[in-house]
């Protein structure tokens, strides 16, 4: 769809050259704004980075692959059963470019003109890096350097760039942006829906994202990974909850004001008045996820999940039950109602904040760095325990009553393996990432592919397209081979076959 729109735009632009010199004056609408408002574009990009088919991409694809979610249905079991259905993997690629990418690129271009807008321009650079890392982490090689140049450079079939070149540029952008932020200059204010233009917090966000991306390179280039991780930590990452990157929502009046994870999922599956018994796509929380939470007496189980009892969800740990991945036979409505779903009073509340990047995540990544010997400012044990404490306290974003103020019982029952091997520590650290980052399924999926933890047992559903192997990426939209043929063909030749099992650059 995106490419078709760009082609049409190109034909329109070229046809304009043959019009009379008075065309613009004659056909100017006096009731429209000729120049886009960059503040509005930036706000829109923040919203559209997440308001972008969350259910298909995050729940059915990524959430099923990391066994947070499961469904008995076959058509929608793309991540649960490793099936190929372009309806579910097309939208994120197609929609993100025409919304979040184009919007932040246009905003950055306008901000770059005036020196007094340098902070606005810099924050837009950071946000653009965030948006692009989510795209490349799903698909691998994607359009990057030529993206959003349809109107400025008449590039309507952008080339796909190697993920290596994309990642190196993203890290460069974050590095330069963090240094360029200047508290003495104006910022975005209320146009920034995350930090209200606070440049000090954006600097910490930039270094925290650098930490995330730096660790992503640990398999493919350990030396480069170490260098970026050390630079990020030295620069100053998010360590306090006050600096957590949250996108806040309200329950209306329009749908774009509502939490997209909750809204999209409840519209498409966990619908009103189904009460767990007739979900449109048969979605439930997965047995793997619920079993780990129950086995470790993790109090977050009551924050994350609930079982419908009549018209209300019961969050008592004892009654939580996950649905097995890879099943086909439909349970009865009564049986469906006994399985856990996301808690509609917390993570799936329509006005719940969305966690973009938090101190729980950064502490876990620093714990890995310490375990590897890349960071000596604290012990991996302390950092791990601080991460758990942060995750417990961060549940308070859903209301003070949900904050888990005492992590000691959990940490005593599930002590950090101080004497364990690096692999054992990685398993424990990244099982916590898998738990703490629930709802951000794209990041959980990316981190699982890099680390292999927690260890998940694949399913082997009849007719699956991976021979029972958990997919390593999403396929490109089915239209790309036909509409952007050369760029697509070059990408496949460089990266490997356009299949779910082809590993992207940082995953090799």
Blueprint (SSEs and pairs):
Blueprint: H1 2-16, H2 23-26, H3 38-48, H4 54-65, E1 69-71, H5 78-81, H6 86-111, H7 118-139, E2 142-143, H8 150-153, E3 160-161, H9 163-180, H10 199-216, H11 222-235, E4 245-247, H12 260-268, E5 283-285, H13 287-295, H14 301-304, E6 305-309, E7 312-314, H15 333-336, E8 341-342, E9 354-357, H16 359-372, H17 380-394, H18 408-413, H19 422-436, H20 441-451, H21 480-483, H22 485-495
Antiparallel strand pairs: 1-5, 2-3, 4-9, 6-7, 6-8
Helix pairs in contact: 3-6, 4-6, 4-12, 4-20, 6-7, 7-9, 7-10, 9-10, 10-11, 10-16, 16-17, 16-19, 19-20
Give an overview of the whole structure.
The chain has 508 residues and is mainly alpha-helical. It is 49% helix and 5% strand. The protein starts with a helix and ends in a 13-residue tail after the last helix.
Summarize the structure.
With 508 residues, the protein is mostly helical.
Uncertain regions spanning at least 5 consecutive residues: 1-33
Major sheet: arrangement of strands: 7-6-8
Q: Total helix count? A: 22
Approximate shape: globular
What is the beta-strand fraction?
5-15%
User: What structural class should be given to the helix and strand makeup?
Assistant: mainly alpha
Question: Top keywords for this entry?
Answer:
three-stranded antiparallel β-sheet; single chain; 9 strands; mainly alpha; 49% helix; disordered N terminus; 22 helices; 508 residues; two-stranded antiparallel sheet
């Amino acid at each position: 769809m995106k490419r078709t729109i760009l082609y049409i735009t190109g034909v329109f632009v070229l046809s304009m050259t043959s019009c009379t010199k008075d065309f613009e004056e004659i056909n100017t609408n006096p009731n429209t704004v000729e120049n886009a408002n960059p503040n509005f574009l930036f706000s829109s990009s923040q919203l559209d980075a997440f308001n972008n088919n969350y259910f298909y991409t995050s729940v059915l694809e990524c959430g099923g692959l990391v066994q947070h979610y499961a469904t008995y249905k076959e058509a929608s079991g793309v991540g649960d059963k490793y099936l190929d259905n372009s309806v579910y993997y097309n939208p994120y690629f197609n929609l993100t470019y025409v919304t979040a990418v184009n919007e932040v690129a246009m905003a950055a271009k306008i901000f770059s003109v005036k020196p007094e807008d340098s902070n606005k321009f810099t924050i837009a650079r950071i946000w653009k890096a965030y948006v692009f890392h989510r795209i490349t982490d799903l698909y691998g090689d994607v359009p990057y350097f030529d993206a959003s140049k349809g109107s400025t450079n008449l590039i309507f079939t952008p080339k796909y760039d190697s993920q290596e070149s994309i990642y190196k540029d993203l890290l460069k952008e974050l590095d330069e942006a963090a240094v360029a932020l200047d508290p003495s200059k104006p910022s975005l204010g209320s146009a920034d829906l995350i930090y209200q233009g606070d440049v000090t917090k954006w600097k910490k966000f930039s270094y925290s994202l650098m930490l995330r991306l730096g660790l992503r390179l640990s398999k493919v280039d350990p030396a480069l990974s170490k260098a970026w991780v050390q630079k990020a930590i030295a620069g100053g990452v998010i360590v306090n909850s006050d600096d957590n990157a949250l996108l806040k929502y309200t329950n209306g009046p329009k749908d774009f004001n509502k939490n997209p994870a909750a809204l999209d999922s409840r519209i498409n599956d966990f619908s009103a008045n189904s009460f767990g018994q007739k979900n449109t796509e048969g979605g439930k929380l997965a047995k793997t996820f619920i079993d780990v939470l129950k086995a470790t007496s993790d109090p977050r189980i009551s924050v994350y999940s609930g079982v419908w009892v009549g018209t209300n969800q019961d969050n008592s740990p004892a009654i939580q039950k996950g649905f097995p991945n890879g099943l086909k036979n439909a349970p009865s409505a009564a049986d469906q109602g006994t399985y856990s779903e996301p808690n509609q009073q917390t993570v799936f509340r329509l006005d719940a904040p969305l966690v973009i990047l938090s101190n729980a995540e950064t502490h876990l990544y620093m714990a890995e760095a310490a375990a590897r010997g890349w960071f000596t400012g604290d012990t991996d044990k302390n950092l791990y325990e601080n991460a758990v404490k942060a995750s417990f306290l961060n549940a308070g974003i859903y209301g003070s009553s949900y904050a888990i103020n005492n992590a000691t019982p959990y940490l005593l029952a599930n002590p950090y393996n101080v004497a364990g091997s690096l692999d054992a520590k990685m398993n424990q650290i990244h099982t916590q990432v898998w738990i703490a980052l629930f709802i951000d399924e794209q990041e959980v999926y990316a981190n699982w592919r890099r680390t292999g933890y927690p260890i998940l047992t694949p399913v082997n559903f009849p007719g699956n397209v991976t021979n029972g192997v958990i997919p390593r990426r999403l396929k490109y939209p089915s239209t790309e081979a036909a509409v952007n043929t050369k760029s697509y063909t070059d990408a496949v030749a460089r990266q490997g076959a356009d299949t779910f099992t082809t590993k992207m650059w940082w995953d090799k």
